[in-house]
Structures are given as structure tokens and as C-alpha cells.
Design brief:
Shape: elongated
Radius of gyration: 46 Å
Largest sheet: 6 strands, antiparallel, barrel
Strand order of the largest sheet: 1-2-5-4-3-12
Low-confidence stretches: 286-296
CATH class of the largest domain: Mainly Beta
Structural class: alpha+beta
Distance between the termini: 156 Å
Number of helices: 4
Number of domains: 2
CATH architecture of the largest domain: Beta Barrel
Helix content: 25-40%
Length: 296
């Protein structure tokens, strides 16, 4: 028995003190001064009460912190969603402002031209190595036909290669099949701008003795029955004059940034050369007589 008491003496002692503390508290009828015995009992049982209530207080604090953390997490999630919505709305507003400014520039550009034009938006691009074209959202219903020139506020874009009722394919000036008859604005030297499919062009058939310099601007000559005269084509970027041959090599940077092309104008003008018969009247048969005399 003594071994059992000695083994559990500390738990029994704390249990006894705890029981005395409970009895002391339960026996109190109101606010009275504690006697010597009660004060001694309170002092002895205070560490035991602290030991018992401390885990409860810690668990209660942890729970409050957890609940508060869940509230903060939910609030942060709501704030992030609101921030994302505001950023998206701000982006739409900025895009609308840019679009409005661009529309004003396009309207001003169109107002300065006397020829009829239709504005179109680029809806697809094919900037592959072998074929350079874009699709715009205007077609036959807007009066667009194949062969009509396409320009932008910066300069020459290309030519209409095909149409549907509501869309058109534009062959860009940098395509290998593209040819634009142009002249140097400063010296009036003429040549043909040919696409290279690398966002660059060359000015072909410029004689070696022609005055062409880097930085010269090229304009459409009006020849070739496609582009009106005076449209900006590009700028001479490099010249190579070899000691042999008839022509010099002239590289050209296009005026239009085709990678960032968004809007274009189609000039509603089909320029066709008149038939040969339109150059002579019924009584002007000189060539016909000469041909007949030659045959005889």
C-alpha cells in the first residue's frame, strides 16, 4: 500500500488540492475577505489551475486564429477577384480609347483623300515564308473587287487578290509575286519594287548611273494600272553598285509595318487601260494600210 501511495503521491496531491480548490470556490457565498487557510489553499492550487486551464486557453486561441485566418483568406480571395475584374475593365477602357483615337486618325486620313475608299480591319494574317497576305472584313458587298489597291495611313499595303461577299484577301507588297512601279521622290529615278517575303523589298531595274541614295523615299509612279500616283512605298535602306552590269541593287524598307497592321483602306478604283481601238478614229487606218501593203 505504501509503495502504491509513494508511486502516485504527486498526482494524488494535485488531485486533493484541486478538490479543495473546488470546494473552496463552491462554498463562497459572496465577496468576503479570505482567511489565512483560504489564501494558503488558493496559493497551493493556483499552479494546478493554471496547468489545467492553459491547454484549454491555447486550444481556444488556436481556434480563433484559424477562424480568423479563414476569414482573411476568403477576404483576400474576394479582393483578388475584384482586382482582376478592375484590371480587365481598365484594359477594355484603354483598348477603347486606343480604338477611338485610331478611328479618328483613319477618318481624318480618309477625309484628306478625294478617291472613294472603304476601311477594313485585318482579321487574319498569313505571314509565312512563301506567301504574304492578310484577310480583311470587307468584300464584294462593300464594292471591293480583285485588283484594287490597298493602303494604310503609312503607305502602300498591297492589292486585292480575291474576294467573298464579306471578306477579301490582300496580297501584301512584300510578297514575292508583288510588283509596284515606283520612283525616287528626290531624283525621279524609276524602278519596280519587288517583294522579298522578309518584310523587305528591292527596287529593280534602276540603272547604275541613276542618282539613288540611302534615305530616299519611294512613291508610286501611277504606272501599271494598279496604284494611283504619289503613294508612299518605302525608304531606300541600302545600295550596292557593282563594277559590272546595267543595274544597281537597291534595298527598300516598306513604309508599312506589316507585323502590326490592323486597319487598311481599299481604294474603290479599278484602273484599266483603254483598248487600242480607243486611240484612233474610224478614218485613222495608217497601221492597217501599212500592214496590208506589207502583206502584198
Amino acid at each position: 500500500m505504501s509503495d502504491l501511495l509513494s508511486r502516485f503521491r504527486y498526482p494524488l496531491t494535485y488531485l486533493l488540492l484541486f478538490a479543495l480548490c473546488v470546494i473552496s470556490v463552491a462554498s463562497r457565498q459572496g465577496p468576503v475577505d479570505l482567511g489565512v487557510g483560504s489564501r494558503l489553499l488558493l496559493r497551493l492550487t493556483l499552479p494546478l489551475g493554471e496547468m489545467v486551464t492553459l491547454p484549454v486557453r491555447q486550444a481556444r486561441g488556436v481556434w480563433r486564429d484559424y477562424v480568423a485566418l479563414l476569414g482573411v483568406r476568403g477576404e483576400n480571395s474576394g479582393l483578388r477577384r475584384e482586382l482582376s475584374r478592375l484590371e480587365e475593365e481598365n484594359l477594355r477602357y484603354r483598348e477603347a480609347m486606343v480604338g477611338a483615337e485610331r478611328f479618328k486618325r483613319l477618318a481624318a486620313f480618309q477625309a484628306r483623300r478625294e478617291v472613294p475608299m472603304v476601311a477594313g480591319n485585318v482579321i487574319a494574317q498569313d505571314l509565312s515564308r512563301w506567301f504574304q497576305s492578310v484577310i480583311i472584313d470587307q468584300g464584294k458587298d462593300a464594292g471591293i473587287r480583285a485588283g484594287m489597291p490597298v493602303i494604310s495611313g503609312a503607305g502602300v499595303v498591297g492589292v486585292i487578290a480575291g474576294t467573298t461577299a464579306t471578306a477579301s484577301k490582300v496580297l501584301l507588297m512584300i510578297d514575292l509575286q508583288s510588283r509596284v512601279d515606283a520612283y525616287v521622290q528626290r531624283s525621279r529615278a524609276r524602278g519596280t519594287v519587288r517583294g522579298r517575303s522578309e518584310e523587305a523589298c528591292e527596287l529593280d531595274y534602276v540603272l547604275r548611273e541613276e542618282d539613288v541614295r540611302e534615305g530616299d523615299q519611294l512613291l508610286t509612279s501611277g504606272l501599271g494600272a494598279v496604284y494611283p500616283k504619289g503613294l508612299l512605298v518605302g525608304t531606300v535602306s541600302h545600295i550596292e553598285r557593282k563594277p559590272y552590269g546595267l543595274f544597281q541593287t537597291v534595298q527598300v524598307d516598306p513604309a508599312v509595318d506589316f507585323r502590326n497592321l490592323e486597319e487598311v483602306f481599299v481604294i474603290l478604283e479599278e484602273r484599266e487601260l483603254p483598248a487600242d481601238a480607243d486611240f484612233s478614229g474610224p478614218d485613222e487606218e495608217l497601221w492597217g494600210l501599212a500592214a496590208e501593203s506589207g502583206d502584198g
